[in-house]
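ARCHIVE CARD
Drawer: 12
Card no.: 0347
Subject: one protein chain, sequence and derived structure
Cross-reference: see card 0346
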Amino acid sequence: MAVDARQVQSFTAGKLKRLLASPDDSSTKAALANMRRGIGRAPGDMPELWGVLFRDMPEEMLSSSKAPSKAEWAAYIALTLFALHQQGRDPSKEPMSREKYTLGRAVRALIPTGDDDAESRIQRRFNAAATSGDMDELAYHLRGVVQLLRAEGIPLDYPALAADIFNYQFQDRAPSVRLAWGQDFYRIREEKTQNETEGKDNSNA
């Protein structure tokens, strides 16, 4: 049975749901700490993370070779980056995984309206992630983006990110992922500008 992005997204969502269901448990805190330590590593490198990643993973998502599968990479990168993003914030009050906060939308929220310097600087980082040649490079650039999001308290849809990472690994699907990221990045700018204009008009009425 072939794996699709929706399955990877659902699996990642289930993992996050279980982590956020008991954020004060010592086991959850230990898991998040280990996940942060796993950033920059490959799936399977850290025995402490085997349970976090592989428990309940459907058989078809598991690697059948000596290298991690595309699904394993996608879930692993998303989960470890979530742990980094959540660090220092109470998961029960301020979960940093939030539905519909796609990567493009979240990155767009980093840029103050009218700040061209910030837009240029952040867009360079975003572009670097979007043109990554392999999973190590993509994980590296996404980590930099997540650190910016964490500093500003901006959430990210991590199950959706896992699906994007999964699709990004297919040569014929990567362009569609980049297209969606770019569309979301600029779509939010237009919506934000329109809302601000409407607000000013209402205040002057």
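Annotation on reverse: The domain at 5-197 is CATH 1.10.520.40 (Peroxidase; domain 1). The chain is about 65% helix and 0% strand.
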